[in-house]
Design brief:
alpha+beta, 3-stranded antiparallel beta sheet
Length: 267
């Protein structure tokens, strides 16, 4: 009896790979086998021991193709769309992970970032992966693009949305690191897309900061001018370059930025 169950499981895993899905849920297993959870858990344990599958979170498993079985993990892009669908959450791959996908790969991030709406799922941290969820009240769908991975298409923030998201996370990444990323990311940013993101952005301070960095550290005047024109139509007040420092420093009159720290990018 156990042997037949195991053969069925192997067929199921192979069928998942044949569909290029690379993942499945416990609910799908119940529909496939009509077996008790005790028997299903026994089979899941055996497949995990053989490194044919990897538990990502409760009730969700990634299927490891032979080329990944020696590593014991699968790239997040292969299953993130199915994972978020199983959770019923909108999402996009974001921040440093998105920047890397757009070519800003000066420093490969040690963790993966995915932005979703509140309440956020619990971040997934283990020896093979560090997947952090970042929360927002609402996602700007205009700033989400699709990229194709081994498991199909997945959502990722556009270069322009990524830039604003990074500045929302100054306390996490630091101004030097963000500026380093922007020095590469600005090369794939589009004027029209940046304008659209800035118009929808209510955080005027970060529009000021981004414009200052694009002009003075990326030397991209076209992108900077777009933000300058948008700020001309809004009420701007002096804001510190780094919100982690005080409010003392010389004021850049164009961007209304209090230069309270020196930016020292890695590039």
């Amino acid at each position: 009896m156990v042997k037949n169950i195991q053969i069925n499981w192997d067929n199921f895993v192979n069928s998942v790979l044949a569909r290029w899905q690379f993942s499945f849920t416990i609910s799908e297993l119940r529909e496939e086998f009509h077996l008790s959870d005790a028997v299903l858990n026994q089979g899941l344990y055996r497949l995990t021991q053989k490194k044919k599958i990897k538990k990502i979170r409760k009730g969700f498993y990634a299927v490891l193709p032979p080329t990944y079985q020696q590593f014991g993990y699968l790239p997040m892009y292969s299953y993130i769309n199915n994972l978020m669908k199983s959770l019923g959450k909108p999402y996009y791959v974001s921040l440093l992970t998105a920047a890397q996908l757009h070519g800003a790969a000066h420093q490969k991030p040690m963790v993966e970032f995915v932005t979703t709406t509140y309440p956020m799922p619990r971040s997934i941290i283990n020896k093979q992966m560090k997947l952090y969820f970042v929360g927002k009240k609402q996602l700007l769908t205009d700033g989400i693009v699709e990229k194709k991975g081994e498991g199909g298409y997945f959502n990722v923030s556009s270069p322009e949305l990524t830039a604003f998201d990074l500045l929302d996370q100054i306390r996490r990444f630091g101004l030097n690191h963000i500026t380093t990323v922007l020095q590469e990311l600005h090369e794939v940013m589009a004027v029209s897309a940046l304008k659209k993101m800035a118009v929808q952005n209510n955080n005027i301070s970060n529009i000021q900061r981004l414009g200052y960095i694009l002009e003075n550290f990326c030397e991209n005047q076209k992108l900077a001018d777009v933000l300058s024109k948008i700020l001309a139509k809004r009420d701007c007040f002096p804001v510190p370059l780094s919100p982690l420092k005080g409010n003392k420093g010389k004021i850049d009159k164009k961007w209304q930025i209090i230069i309270n720290t020196e930016i020292d990018p890695d590039l």
